[in-house]
Amino acid sequence: MNPSAETPFIFIGASAGGVYAMLDLVTALPAGFPAPIFFVQHIGSMRSHLPDLLNTRGPNRALTARDGDVPQPGTIYIAPSDHHMLLEGGVVRLSRGPKEHHARPAIDPLFRSAALDCGARAVGVVLTGMLDDGTAGLRAIKDCGGIAVVQDPEDAYEPSMPRSALACVEVDHVVPLGGLGALLCQLAQPRARRLPVLPPMSWRREHALGAGDHNVENLMAIADPSTFTCPDCGGVLFELKDKRPVRYRCHTGHAFSLRSLAHTQEQTTDAALWAALRTLQEKESILRHLADLHQGSDAQTTAQALREADELAIACSALRRLTEKSPSPESFGAP
Predict the structure, then answer these.
(1) 186 to 130, 173, 182, 191: CA distances (angstroms)
(2) How far apart are CA 298 and CA 306, in angstroms?
(3) Buried b / exposed e along 105-128 (16+ C-beta atoms within 10 A)
(4) Does residue 245 have a cis bond before it (omega within 30 degrees)?
(5) Is 42 an annotated catalytic residue?
(6) Tens of pLDDT along 136-164?
(7) Rounded to whole angstroms, how far apart are CA atoms 9 and 3?
(8) Strands 91-95, 84-88: pairing kind
(9) pLDDT in tens, 97-125
(10) How far apart are CA 298 and CA 318, in angstroms?
(11) FRET pair for 250, CA 20 to 30 Å: which of 90, 218, 259, 294?
(12) CA angle at residue 157 from 259 to 61, to 5 degrees?
């Protein structure tokens, strides 16, 4: 049975700790839950067995979303690996569009599409996770008349995502995981139609960019060029004028918050440091091998090779100390 025009749609996003959170949540939802549920878990390109896991714990059917699915009440749609899950015209759409927060699937694309497609019927839920994916999307849901729910950070396995949402969004409900099922049962009940809220043009433009629209005018209308480059494609990053939280986009559609950009750049820097360390270690080894070959036959070559190898050993030690100082995601601070 297709949902009525008054049926709310539930949109949930999580990262670290999210699988366990959803396993607990589905057990708290009654059979015949009156609304469709959409769930994004950061899984990257790894194959997900989450639908099978959820089906062993809860009475409502969980499945991997397919392009063209018509949402049904009492069904949990899980974003497949390496695809953003969107809702457009009341139908599920899957996209391999640009990564956001260096993730695909990501939470913000689902929440933005939910805001634009469902308006006041959208209920957005941010659960446990690192960094701040979902914060901007939850703001879009609120800006379009929907309801914002956040897991109590003190109750979350990883509190960063809930804390970010609370810092940047006028949240309607903050609940521990144990109380979320009962709250969603209330929020899933059909509600009288409310006056529609006209979605801000900025969200429409950003949704188009995330969907692969390369119209630079759209980007320039909502963002200003920054001095940073995109770690995914090397293009110029534009800083969005909406600064709750501070976010960036490049002209190809990749998107980052300031925190996810810092985290991604840290990963890039770490890889570069290890590559440099490996190269210097190899050169040091070659020089010492060269010194061994000329030992006793060419004193000048031997001495020069050992001198350069010792200098490289000092450089390697310095680089190794840098690699050991890589910060954790939480060290990048609040939004």
Answers:
(1) 28, 12, 7, 10
(2) 12
(3) bbbbbbbbbbbbbbbbbbbbbbbb
(4) yes
(5) yes
(6) 999 999 999 999 999 999 999 999 999 99
(7) 9
(8) antiparallel
(9) 999 999 999 999 999 999 999 999 999 99
(10) 31
(11) 90
(12) 105
224 phi/psi in degrees, rounded to 5: -120, 145
15 has catalytic annotation: yes
Is the CA virtual torsion 149, 155, 160, 166 positive or negative?
positive
Give CA–CA dist 132/129, Å, rounded: 8
Total-model pTM: 0.85
Q: Are 67 and 91 in contact (CB under 8 A)?
A: no
Give the whole-angstrom CA distance, residue 242 versus residue 164.
15
Report in angstroms the alpha-carbon separations of 77 from 36, 39, 70, 159, 250.
Answer: 8, 6, 10, 24, 29
Q: What angle do CA 113, 29, 32 make, to 5 degrees?
A: 85
Q: Is 133 a catalytic residue?
A: yes
User: What is the amino acid identity at position 72?
Assistant: Q
3-state secondary structure of 27: helix
145 vs 291: CA distance, rounded Å: 73
CA–CA separation, 249 and 98 (whole Å): 10
- Is the distance from CB of 48 to CB of 64 less than 8 angstroms? yes
Which residues of the chain form beta strands (DSSP E)?
9-14, 37-41, 61-64, 75-78, 84-88, 91-95, 122-126, 147-151, 173-175, 223-229, 236-240, 247-250, 255-257
